[in-house]
Design a protein that fits this description.
Chain lengths: 771, 162
């Protein structure tokens, strides 16, 4: 992609510029959905099923309706638009006849105050007939398991398409198991023969529980209808256009009657892509004729949010004694909860094609259970998959007494190698990040550091490599020249992490002005060009490309106007310090302000500069990260202390190093949380046993050291200024890196997350008992 | 239930407001006084997003009844800076690009401010413990610790200049 040259250094791409809305965020002035309080606001609450699987025999709402201050009480019977065979979680607005997970909404209340709405919930009487629940995904796959979906419900593959953009043939042999909603299988070569010819065959089953994305702001939405039948939603969403489409589909409203205003989003990480509470809030607002706000409680988030799936990977590898890879066989079971929508392809791609396996047989199963349905969580299924393959690679190296980095490097893919789905790997920095981390003093001095430990603690050093293929989605942007020579950039991009400043920098460098002169706005679905999700590590890669093209367009228009005014050829013009001048004749020029004014004057014949772009994309830009941990374990308690943690990542080009490092650090800590403490725990009846942030433990500042970040820049061929997606890769490697460090420290290979003190201490004790 | 009169000082200003007897301090601040800087991330005192100062001490305002603040000094994020001037902590958070989604930030800043008032030159470990009651999901805490440490230096040099 061409980037226009400017004649002096522009304060733009590559400069560390703090986000301009920082002061709004540190003063508490920035408004989230829960902070918006229109006149006449009503508060919504949902009555949720206490049972994972039950028939609804009857619902009596009379007492709740009679409570003063209650404005509406709804059950599924009151909403004719609802479909019995809900194809997605969003469609299951309120349960019809049957609940399929504990926490599923069965009735909704809108009242003058939250406390009144809550009291009304207590007055609703629901008679349930409790049914057997399928909780464990492996049992749920068996014939005779209690069915989750209504017969004839179609699998939902939109998440896979939207998020991972990995084409994968569906399995030709559909399974007959009642709760298996999607399958996939990719094979090459003769796996059985491969294992027979292998010197070392290693088999492990890796387990990762459901984990919650953990955004600090729970799901929230405010809905209001005007008197002409138009709905406005103020939403905490990662994609306003997607929210609009889903709400339109669920409630049967034309999209041009819905306006979604993306309010400041207090974190999403994949959990705020799909619609969840928007449809019911819209219905309550319609029924009451008042604005209605719904904010989920933390308990509701944990019990009935859309977490990452439980993933079980049964992995078998065969290698020769010299480390030659021969065959890999894996069965990945993804517990999607009560509704289909998990991503299957990512597991097969990273299991089978991060390293070059000549023969593979990789099977994937999406299984439904009576648990909350899942959604994306930052690099969906990649950390779980990398936990399996990077643990296995490490152990193979150890078993064969090979250097773990050299062993990986020998088999690591590069550009042009085939993925398991037959597509070629695009240019990527996998080898560069692995090489960079292997040069790190913490890795080179690992034996000395381990030996220097004491106090009865055991030390270990481990690393892992992981990545993300990079998402794609069509998107749009406009760049306007203001009458004072400044620029206005408009997209619909929801800015959570600080992407808007990076987009402004792209516009600045492309057009040829300093970033201070660029104002960027996130529009809503009525005002902004169609814009994709803030997800899949694709904001800078795709929206950045749209902004770049729109800025090029605006610059071209600007030069055409200047050429006319200066009676010169556009090819002889350059932009210097806010003035378009004829090259070599600095006095012959016209300022951007003059051009901007001409486009804004009454009776002027000069068109206003309006650069626009609406690209679609086909070439992904994979991003890889390598992480290294130095840790200490107390063998009696299993307690882990992380001394150092290093994140090396190929970002293509760091458009704004502040934002890039923020992503690397934040992603790594989410990855460490998955490794060490996090997991939704369900009892045998499908009820969550840790529904609070006291029991669902996330890492705090006191649990962690300061993280070291090392940026590697292997330019992507198609990204703006060579940039790649940055958000996803850093959440991928830590579970494997920590497990590998723990093996280094204790000799024990742990295969189930989280790597809790209990599991570690037991593994050490078992190891001691064997020797 | 009849509402009760809560009179206390909020960000240096005396206030009198009618609140429900069951209302939390967080509810009273957000719903009755329009101070929406403190956030509710959990409602059970586990996340720290609602952190404010009551008589100079860190309090999870979601766990305190509004009426318990009667006659006391309450300080929220809205009262951390003065007028248009950012507090050195806020300034350091902006310059280091700490806020991402920003939802935890008001609570983290109030916890950090209380820490620095009690311990003007904390070590990295003391800073980490000082904000251990505040969950952040975006930043990984690294830049927060750097910014707090830098703000401590700024405050100390301001103090010695006086």
């Amino acid at each position: 992609m061409s980037t226009m040259k400017t004649t002096r250094d522009i304060k733009g791409v590559g400069v560390a510029i703090p986000r301009p809305d920082g002061p709004e965020k540190v003063t508490g002035r920035v408004q989230y959905v829960g902070d918006i309080k229109p006149k006449g606001l009503l508060h919504a609450k949902l009555l949720r099923s206490p049972h994972a699987h039950a028939k609804i025999v009857s619902i009596d709402t009379r007492a709740a309706r009679a409570l003063p201050g209650v404005r509406a009480v709804l059950t599924a019977a009151d909403i004719p638009e609802l479909k019995r065979k809900a194809p997605t979680r969003a469609h299951a607005v309120l349960a019809i006849d049957r609940v399929v997970f504990a926490g599923q909404p069965v009735a909704a209340v809108a009242a003058d105050e939250p406390a009144i709405a809550e009291e009304a919930l207590d007055l609703i009487e629901v008679e349930y007939q409790v049914l057997p629940a399928a909780v464990d995904p492996l049992e749920s796959m068996q014939p005779g398991a209690p069915p989750v979906a209504d017969a004839g419900t179609e699998a939902d593959t939109s998440e896979a398409l939207a998020h991972s953009a990995v084409a994968m043939a569906k399995s030709e042999t559909p399974t007959k198991a009642v709760n298996v909603s999607q399958t996939s299988r990719v094979t090459r070569g003769d796996v059985a023969k491969g294992f027979a010819e292998s010197d070392v065959v290693l088999e492990h089953t890796y387990r990762v529980p459901m984990v919650h994305q953990g955004y600090l702001e729970p799901h929230a939405v405010l809905a209001e209808w005007d008197s002409t039948g138009h709905l406005t939603l103020w939403a905490s969403t990662q994609g306003s256009f997607n929210t609009r489409s889903e709400v339109a589909d669920v409630l049967g409203i034309p999209e041009n009657r819905i306006r979604v205003i993306p309010v400041e989003c207090g974190g999403g990480f994949g959990g705020k892509i799909r619609a969840l509470c928007e449809p019911i809030t819209a219905v309550l607002a319609k029924v009451t004729g008042r604005p209605v706000r719904y904010v989920m409680t933390r308990r509701e988030e944990l019990e009935a949010g859309m977490p990452a799936p439980q993933v079980i990977i049964k992995l078998k590898t065969g290698v020769k004694r010299d480390g030659t890879l021969v065959a890999i066989d894996a069965e990945t079971v993804i517990d999607s909860g009560a509704f289909s929508g998990a991503v299957l392809a990512v597991s097969a791609v990273f299991l089978g094609s991060m390293y070059k396996w000549p023969a593979f047989d990789l099977r994937g199963f999406e299984v439904l259970t009576h648990k909350p349905s899942v959604a994306a969580y930052r690099a969906p299924v990649a950390p779980q998959t990398i936990f399996a393959i990077e643990s296995q690679m490490e152990q193979i190296a150890r078993d064969l007494d090979l250097d773990p980095v050299e062993f990986r490097m020998r088999h690591l893919i590069q550009e042009g190698d085939q993925m398991v789905n037959g597509q070629p790997w695009q240019s990527n920095g996998a080898k560069q990040v692995l090489a960079r981390i292997a040069e790190h003093p913490h890795w080179k001095s690992r034996k000395q550091w381990v030996a220097a430990g004491g106090n009865g603690k055991r030390r270990g050093v481990g690393l892992a490599l992981g990545g993300w293929l990079g998402g794609l989605q069509p998107t749009g942007a406009t760049v306007r020249l203001n009458p004072d020579g400044s620029l206005a950039v408009l997209t619909g991009q929801v800015d959570i992490a600080g992407t808007n400043i990076a987009l402004a920098q792209i516009a600045a460098s492309t057009y040829g002005v300093d970033t201070d002169l660029v104002r960027i706005t996130t529009g809503d679905t009525d005002t902004a060009p169609v814009t994709g999700l803030s997800a899949g590590s694709k904001t800078i890669y795709t929206v950045g490309a749209a902004v770049l093209q729109a800025a090029e367009d605006a610059r071209r228009q600007t030069f055409e106007i200047a050429a006319k005014e200066l009676e010169a050829s556009v090819h002889d013009l350059e932009l210097v310090d806010g003035k378009v001048v004829v090259r070599g004749m600095p006095d012959k020029g016209i300022t951007l302000a003059a051009i901007g004014k001409k486009g804004n004057l009454y009776m002027s014949k000069t068109p206003p500069v309006l650069g626009r772009a609406n690209p679609a994309f086909s070439q992904q830009a994979p991003g890889f990260a390598a992480q290294l941990a130095r840790l200490e374990v107390d063998p009696d308690t299993g307690e882990v202390t992380i001394h150092d943690f290093v994140v090396v990542q190929d970002v293509g080009k760091a458009i704004n190093p502040i934002g890039v490092e923020g992503q690397m650090q934040g992603g790594a800590v989410q990855s460490l949380g998955m490794a060490l403490t996090e997991g939704l725990q369900f009892d045998d009846t499908g009820r969550l046993t840790n529904p609070s942030l006291l029991d669902y433990r996330k890492l705090t500042a006191a649990d962690l050291p300061s993280l070291e970040t090392i940026i590697v820049e292997v330019p992507s061929p198609a990204g703006p200024f060579g940039a790649r997606g940055v958000g996803e890769p850093p959440i991928v490697p830590a579970p494997a890196a920590i497990a590998n460090a723990l093996q280094d420290a204790t000799g024990a290979r742990l295969t189930e997350l989280p790597l809790s003190p209990e599991r570690i201490a037991l593994a050490i004790a078992r190891g001691a008992a064997r020797t | 239930m009849a509402k009760q009169v809560l009179s206390c000082t909020v960000n240096g200003e005396p206030v009198e407001v009618l609140v429900q007897p069951y209302a939390t301090l967080l509810d009273a601040l957000r719903e009755d006084l329009g101070l929406t800087g403190p956030k509710e991330g959990c409602g059970t005192g586990d996340c720290g997003a609602c952190t404010v100062h009551v008589d100079g001490k860190v309090v999870a305002s979601c766990l305190m009844l509004a009426m318990q603040a009667r006659g006391r000094q309450v300080r929220t994020i809205e009262g951390l800076g003065t007028g248009d001037t950012l507090h050195p902590l806020q300034d350091a958070f902006v310059r280091h690009g700490v806020p991402q989604c920003g939802f935890c930030i008001p609570g983290v800043l109030m916890a950090a401010a209380a820490l620095l008032e009690e311990n003007p030159r904390p070590s990295e470990e003391e800073i980490r413990y000082g904000i251990a009651g505040n969950l952040c999901r975006c930043t990984g805490y690294t830049r927060m610790v750097t910014a707090i440490s830098e703000a401590a230096d700024t405050l100390a040099s301001q103090g010695s200049a006086r």
